[in-house]
Amino acid sequence: MEKNGNNHKLRVCVATCNRADYSKLAPIMFGIKAEPQFFELDVVVLGSHLIDDYGNTYRMIEQDDFDIHTRLHTIVRGEDEAAMVESVGLALVKLPDVLNRLKPDIMIVHGDRFDALALATSAALMNIRILHIEGGEVSGTIDDSIRHAITKLAHYHVCCTRSAEQHLIAMCEDHDRILLAGCPSYDKLLSAKNKDYMSVIRVWLGEDVKPRDYIVALQHPVTTDIKHSIKMFELTLDALISFNKRTLVLFPNVDAGSKEMVRVMRKKGIEHHPNFRAVKHVPFDQFIQLVAHAGCMIGNSSCGVREVGAFGTPVINLGTRQTGRETGENVLHVRDADTQDKILHALQLQFGKQYPCSKIYGDGNAVPRILKFLKSIDLKEPLQKKFCFPPVKDNISQDIDHILETQSALAVDLGGTNLRVAIVSMKGEIVKKYTQLNPKTYEDRLDLILKMCVEAASEAVNLNCRILGVGISTGGRVNPREGIVLHSTKLIQEWSSVDLRTPISDALHLPVWVDNDGNCAALAERKFGHGKGIENFVTLITGTGIGGGIIHQHELIHGSSFCAAELGHIVVSLDGPECLCGSQGCIEAYASGIALQREAKKLHDEDLLLVEGMSMKNEEVVSAAHLIQAAKLGNTKAESILRTAGTALGLGVVNILHTMNPSLVILSGVLASHYINAVKDVIHRQALSSVKTVDVVVSNLADPALLGAASLVLDYTTRRIY
């Protein structure tokens, strides 16, 4: 004790509320009692320990030869939500007097029960240090909230798994005050299995029962859905009756709904059924032997997913009460236990199996670690706990300069040729734009994106623009939820399975959104263009390729595999030209800039492209622009190619009208104005009369890709659902 500067024994108060938490606290209590030169132990008993219906389990504490300093009757009967609240209140009324008399240096509190919350609240308000056992774990129901609330009140933490330790750190708890010790009950479990167990089995299940030929059932109410948990318990009992194996059923805990569960047991005659033994309590030493040699354990107790794994006993975990707990391979989850057949099938799968023993929750050496941790506590340290929050920038939201800033987004457009970054205001004004050639390799491209974004973000400060986030428009198939480019178009090389969000967000410390360029064009129209206020519309981009986006009921459609609105790959001819996607007859194979360039080269190679008024330099590359110029100057072959391209695009639009029935079609991109008349003509000739009245317009947005990327950010900041 000299190490921590304490000149007296550490006075430790251990408060236990029920049979479950005592199984975890007892090994620690034995360890404290065994070192009287370092510790003074005071035991406070409350909760269901003192209720006859739950077995008067305080007696096992006395049988373990512990002196109980105080017994507090804190349970208000009723077994409903109000009774739980009243029980917490009653404990809060009674505990201050006890703690004033005991004056402990530290109180040890276990787990996630409502009684434990009252203990932690009382101790924290009375300036008593708290050591919390089993913080950081995850499970279902209200227990999660209570456990994390106790964590916030506690000064020291003993956790059982590496994940729980990481959760505590993520909750801003001081790493120096967290001990990864393992579960104290494992100190007993791992040495218990080989003890005499046949006599225990005979006492609780009968003389004729053999090991691995019986079931242990322990099911508690789920306080956030009492009605469903009672129904699930009824189905469980029906399945156990049908399964026809000897079963030990333990009564549920004192939570709201327990009274109704007991009624279900009695209604089905479980207490008098020849295959069942219904008991209120089994001493922990004997309970260990029973689950260690059972053919199966069923229910929703944390014991099933935690302690039973030490023996490899099969477990069926029912419902959501333990959702999120780490489990071994011995646990079969039946999360939606809504039919008797489903539970019966789980019993048939699990009963009698033997799994490898699991040590997820401990290695049998938790208590020595905890005692060493207790000895290291320095009572001279300030009592007020500190939270280890991650570093954040100073909040300047009330500074006048900050208020006057223009809220803006960084927009990135990854095209087949150019890489562009722009600062875009909330009103859709492009404040400043940066353009570079798009590198050919992944590493160079990502480096350039980061460099351009950093430069733009720095310049935004000088322009009095507050950057809210980064939006990225890119070709290919994109998972916008994860910010990953799944598959690239052939126009952008080395651009598949690329996580764009993480490196850019890490570098700029800003949120990042990523989406397909066609989707971004649709978002741009929804926020800034013809689509503003329109419930259902489609945008078609006519550029190097053909893409698009669909807005349905004001929201963007991504599709189940993020492949919606690949409008350029609508097939309009079974024997048409080959498309870059590998298919034939796609709109893109007819009407894209690449397709027009292909046809222009064919004409040029045959000396059929140039007409009077046109000229080309020797080194000049033939492009779609030359084909359009030739058509304008009367080249009939060029006119025919453009007419075919416009017809193909029009047929694709007719298919879209018949599928989605939008009220507006917006043609966007450099070729839109050349195609609009042809598209309208095809709609007039080919579409059903009910959709012929659709509006078809050319986009009035100068830069839909950048504006769409910006809207990914700006829509979120204005609380649009996206």
Automatic annotation (TrEMBL):
Q: Name one Pfam family in it.
A: Epimerase_2
Q: Which CDD domains match?
A: ASKHA_NBD_ROK_GNE, GTB_UDP-GlcNAc_2-Epimerase
Binding sites annotated in the UniProt record for an N-acyl-D-mannosamine: 477, 489, 517, 566, 588
EC number(s) of the enzyme? 2.7.1.60, 3.2.1.183
Gene Ontology BP, a term? UDP-N-acetylglucosamine metabolic process
Q: Tell me the pathway.
A: Amino-sugar metabolism; N-acetylneuraminate biosynthesis
Q: Which residues bind Zn(2+)?
A: 569, 579, 581, 586
- Chief subcellular location equals cytoplasm
Ranges of residues in domain UDP-N-acetylglucosamine 2-epimerase = 38-375
- Which reaction is catalysed here? UDP-N-acetyl-alpha-D-glucosamine + H2O = aldehydo-N-acetyl-D-mannosamine + UDP + H(+); an N-acyl-D-mannosamine + ATP = an N-acyl-D-mannosamine 6-phosphate + ADP + H(+)
- A molecular-function term among this protein's GO annotations: N-acylmannosamine kinase activity
Q: Which GO CC annotations does the UniProt entry carry? A: cytosol
Keywords, alphabetical: Allosteric enzyme, ATP-binding, Cytoplasm, Hydrolase, Kinase, Metal-binding, Multifunctional enzyme, Nucleotide-binding, Phosphoprotein, Transferase, Zinc
> NCBIfam families, from UniProt?
NeuC_NnaA
What's the subunit arrangement here? Answer: Homodimer. Homotetramer. Homohexamer. The hexameric form exhibits both enzyme activities, whereas the dimeric form only catalyzes the phosphorylation of N-acyl-D-mannosamine.
- The name this protein goes by in its record: Bifunctional UDP-N-acetylglucosamine 2-epimerase/N-acetylmannosamine kinase
Q: Which organism is it from?
A: Chrysolophus pictus
Q: State the organism's lineage.
A: Eukaryota, Metazoa, Chordata, Craniata, Vertebrata
